[in-house]
Every structure is written in structure tokens, then in C-alpha cells.
Amino acid sequence: MTNHAAILRARRKRAAWGDDERAIYTRHRWQVEGARGTAKTLHGLARAIRRGLENMKIQALLTVIAMNLKKLAAALMLLVCSIIEDRAARPTRASA
């Protein structure tokens, strides 16, 4: 398995990378692996619920939708909180 043709080609291709390619891959890996790790540990993507590639695609899509909805809800909550704080900080007008 370690000497499979595709693995050997990938190793040769990676060995030929320059500094630019290494920097791009490092940044990409850091960004993507964080999301994948979160999906696996917090959202149940570590185990397939049903068998089959199509069912796994559906599960992955639903997981990503759930993660994006959580990000959206957090962003909206920050916006609402900042609006409330801004209104509370305004001086109140005394009624005459």
C-alpha cells in the first residue's frame, strides 16, 4: 500500500514544490483541517449514518449547512448585541 503508484506520484510532486507552493498548502491545510475536525468531533461527521456514497454526500452537506447556520446565528447575535449596547449608551432625552 505504501508503494502504490498514486502515492509515489504524489510524493514526487510534493518533493518538487517550491517555497510558494509550500506556503499556500500550509495556509490551506490550516484552514480546511480546522473545519473538518470541527465537523467530525462536534457534528457527527466521523461516522456515516447510512451506507453509500450518495448518502455520505447528503450527510456531509447537511453537516456543512448546520455549521454555516451556527456561524450565521453567532454573527447575527453579535450584531444585535452591538445594537442594544449602542442604544443603551446613548444619552436619554429628558421630556420637557
How would you state the average pLDDT, rounded? 87
Could you name the ranges where pLDDT drops below 50 across 5 or more consecutive residues? Answer: none
- What distance lies between the first and last C-alpha atoms, to the nearest angstrom? 85 Å
Helical run tally = 3
Oligomer: single chain
Number of DSSP strand runs:
0
Major beta sheet summary: none
Shape: elongated
Helix and strand succession?
HHH
Share in helix:
over 70%
Compute the gyration radius: what is it?
A: 23 Å
Number of domains: 2
Secondary structure class reads mainly alpha
Residues in β-strands, percent:
under 5%
3D architecture notes:
This protein folds into 2 domains: 1-42; 50-96. The protein contains 3 helices and no strands. The model has no long low-confidence stretch (mean pLDDT 87). It is elongated and about 80 Å long. The chain starts with a helix and ends in a 7-residue tail after the last helix. The chain has helices at residues 5-15, 19-42, 53-89. With 96 residues, it is mostly helical.
Keyword list:
single chain, 96 residues, mainly alpha, 75% helix
Write the layout of secondary structure elements.
Blueprint: H1 5-15, H2 19-42, H3 53-89
Describe what is shown at a glance.
With 96 residues, the protein is mostly helical. 75% of the residues lie in helices and 0% in strands. The chain has three helices and no strands.
